Amino acid sequence: MTRPVVEFWFEFASPYSYLSAMRLPSVAATAGVEVRWRPFLLGPIFAAQGWSTSPFNLYPAKGRYMWRDMARRAARLGLGLCQPEPFPQNGLLAARVAQVALGRPDGDAFCRAVFLAEFARGQDISDAGVIADCAAEAGLPEDVIDAAQSEANKQAMRRATEEAERRGIFGAPSFFVGDELFWGDDRLQEALDWALEHG
Amino acid sequence: MTRPVVEFWFEFASPYSYLSAMRLPSVAATAGVEVRWRPFLLGPIFAAQGWSTSPFNLYPAKGRYMWRDMARRAARLGLGLCQPEPFPQNGLLAARVAQVALGRPDGDAFCRAVFLAEFARGQDISDAGVIADCAAEAGLPEDVIDAAQSEANKQAMRRATEEAERRGIFGAPSFFVGDELFWGDDRLQEALDWALEHG
Fold first, then answer.
1. What pTM, to 2 d.p., does this model score?
2. Which residues of chain B lie closer than 8 angstroms to A59, CB-CB?
3. CATH 3.90.1150.10 fits domain A5-198
4. pLDDT digits (tens, 9 = 90+) for A14-63
5. Range 78-137 of A in CB contact (< 8 A) with B
6. What burial class does residue A85 get, using C-beta atoms within 10 Å of its C-beta: 0-12 exposed, 13-18 middle, 19+ buried?
7. CB A170 to CB B62 under 8 A?
8. Hey, where are the domains in chain B?
């Protein structure tokens, strides 16, 4: 019997993607739902909406609230939280490496290592050294960063972002159960429930 | 012993404010928390962010998702749902009448009557006849609409919206426990919990 599946679409620069990434292994296992990790880039999707940066920067009241909300939620989950500088971080390299890593068992460990480096320790994830450390921490082979920079993998990342936009994604994290879209860390449990009922 | 208090800041045009308004009496009573209903207008706050209409109209992917999310959540709450035409509705008259009604016991019954007219039956809440029917349904005296249009009450509504903006509100519904802000229907339970712990 196959388990129901939830697609987890995330962007490394996204604070709420951090919360979902960290609690997904536990809540999905409890629910008995399989998770497909799908990295993508919000930049092109925001640009198509006329935004040059994160809405949390464009709309200061919303940004101030977001960091307070994140602090409350991270504390409740027992997660560290700092505000990366700059915000948002450039998650392109991390996403490309994740795209390769997720083709292997336990590739999601790399994703969590990146999120922790960024949001718990305030490291700059556009730094290739930081990403190499995360890859090593997750037990990935040393050539994974070179593989991530291959033309084929760059194209795979572009296609992932195009797929996200085509399927109606406008923010991160987003969850799909089939074509049913759920947006936001606060919809994670609802997406899992939906997968169990309809997946 | 006084009960902890949550302020419920809502805009009649806001779909998620409808969900909160309908379930607030039950969930707040269960929690033992007192609710202060605070109508305000999102229009001036959106305008200050450079938006001429609802972000659900400005960003179509977000708007399509919102209506699907609303349909799922309304169904789970056993609430009717239709998309008002036009959307967003002009909630100015309703807010002014609510401002008066909420000075009386059970003024929130008027607010729920307006939300049901708008989102369950698709009536136009800028229509004075619709608002008069809602007032009658809530047992308000016939002169409430005249009182709502008084210069003093118009000023009170402007002050409420200014207070919302000054305190950092950028969307609806929003909840305050003291100065602690919670945004969105999906933060209602968290706001109640916060009131019990810190209120």
1. 0.95
2. 49, 170
3. no
4. 999 999 999 999 999 999 999 999 999 999 999 988 888 999 999 999 99
5. none
6. exposed
7. yes
8. 5-198
